[in-house]
Design goal:
Elements lengths: L5 H16 L2 E8 L4 E7 L3 H10 L2 E8 L1 H13 L14 H16 L4 H11 L3 H15 L4 H8 L4 H13 L2 H57 L6 H15 L1 H19 L2 H13 L3 H22 L4 H11 L3 H15 L5 H7 L4 H13 L2 H57 L1
Antiparallel strand pairs: 1-2, 1-3
């Protein structure tokens, strides 16, 4: 017999793994109690899907393979041997993950076996992609994998989520840990929604101001410019500047957009480098007003994450390693990494954080008190709550100042354009009279 080539074996293994995930079958059926139901299930074949649903007490009346997922699977299978792998799928929203985590915590806390809890959860989830992911997690757990390993293999859950679930499984308090994860995700979503809602009105005002200026430059000014030039009179310098600027914007608008696009593209490439990212994060922390908000947000995220991990039973060293990346800032991450090294060597956490100079005295003092009193988790929660409220209040004050400022800027630009075009007409009219 001819031996199989390693590449062919690996290719067959990849296709076999892919077939366990897709295709996805959409079904309609009736439960044993007579209640109608519908949803989707992943299986190797339609026969396997029917058997699985029959085992769950669902009598199918209709089952069809999802064409969108099948075509996507075929594209993935066809391109798995290539060099590039493009994935345009949308990420799962954080709120959907939080709701699913909360539901799973309730089911596990009620004493329902994990596989049965995951089965019920899959039937409950409405988000298509999350349903497919959790269906795969349920299959892996049913095959003997731990919940943490199954979540990690799905590629849709970060280290924070997986580490907390792993600690919950090891300590036998999975339901409590899942509730803590759900609290963390809900708090993060709530804060992000507050900040977004506060920034909506200033953003609308800014867009409106830009549209007004663009309309004046492209529609109003050309008509007035032709009238002024037809008078053959000397024009003030500011009027000449506005006329030339308007003509340049109308003629070279495509070059302006291209230059702006190249600038932002080059900027994104620069901050993706190690030195560029470090310099940008350092600049963000040093800005007069924005720097304080960035620092407070990062410290609040770090404090809440570290508290949640420690409360779930994760070791301090591992918790600091995860929190280092959650801070989402290279400078603060380096300070946390140095603190982790000091903790490994036996030093308390507050001392290296204070020595870095990147953490305010309030944070280091509360951490110090928490370490000495044995209530570090509670102190970190207080720090996070205090800073979350401070971020919200600071952004609210800034937006309350930004709104009239944007109005004044818009009115000032319109006033300058109007005066630059009306003043020559008034001078000519006065000389004629």
């Amino acid at each position: 017999m001819r031996p199989k080539k390693k590449g062919t074996s690996r290719r067959s293994s990849d296709l076999a793994d892919l077939s366990r995930i897709v295709p996805i079958y959409a079904y309609r059926g009736v439960h044993a109690n007579g209640r109608a139901t519908k949803g989707s299930v992943t299986a190797d074949s339609e026969r396997t899907a029917r058997s699985r649903m029959r085992a769950e007490g669902v009598f199918l009346t209709e089952i069809t393979e999802s064409q969108a997922d099948s075509s996507r699977a075929a594209k993935s299978a066809g391109g798995s041997g290539g060099r590039f792998d493009f994935n345009f799928s949308r990420p799962i929203p954080s709120m959907e993950r939080a709701i699913a985590t909360r539901q799973l915590a309730t089911l596990v806390g009620a004493g329902i076996p994990l596989v049965d809890s995951l089965t019920t959860l899959v039937q409950q989830i409405e988000h298509a992609r999350l349903k497919s992911v959790m269906d795969g997690v349920r299959d892996r757990v049913n095959e003997g994998a731990s919940l943490a390993d199954a979540l990690q293999q799905s590629g849709q859950f970060d280290n924070l989520f997986v580490s907390m679930v792993r600690a919950g499984e090891a300590s036998g308090a999975l339901a409590v840990v899942l509730s803590q994860v759900a609290d963390y995700l809900e708090d993060a979503v709530r804060l992000r929604n507050k900040v977004t809602s506060i920034m909506v009105y200033p953003s609308v005002m800014l867009v409106f101001a830009l549209l007004v200026v663009a309309a004046l430059v492209t529609v109003v000014l050309p008509q007035i410019t032709s009238l002024l030039l037809s008078l053959n009179q000397p024009l003030p310098f500011y009027t000449v500047w506005i006329i030339e600027g308007s003509a340049f914007a109308r003629q070279w608008w495509w070059a302006i957009f291209a230059a702006v696009g190249l600038f932002f593209g080059g900027f994104r490439m620069l901050i993706r480098t190690t030195s560029g990212h470090s310099a940008w994060d350092r600049l963000c922390l040093r800005l007069p007003v924005v720097g304080a908000i960035v620092r407070v947000l990062a410290i609040a995220r770090f404090s809440r994450t570290l508290s949640t991990l420690l409360g779930a039973g994760v070791g301090i060293v591992r918790a600091l390693e995860i929190s280092e990346h959650v801070a989402n800032n290279v400078i603060l991450g380096a300070a946390i990494a140095n603190a982790r090294t000091s903790v490994v060597e036996g030093a308390p956490l507050a001392a290296p954080l204070r020595a870095s100079g990147e953490f305010p005295p309030l944070v280091t003092t509360m951490i110090d008190v928490g370490e000495h009193s044995g209530n570090l988790e509670e102190m970190l929660v207080k720090v996070a709550s205090t800073y979350d409220e401070q971020v919200e209040n600071t952004i609210s004050r800034l937006t309350s100042l930004l709104e009239p400022l944007l109005i004044l800027v818009m009115v000032g630009i319109v006033l300058v354009i109007i005066l630059a075009t009306l003043m020559p007409l008034m001078q000519i009219t006065g000389s004629l009279s």
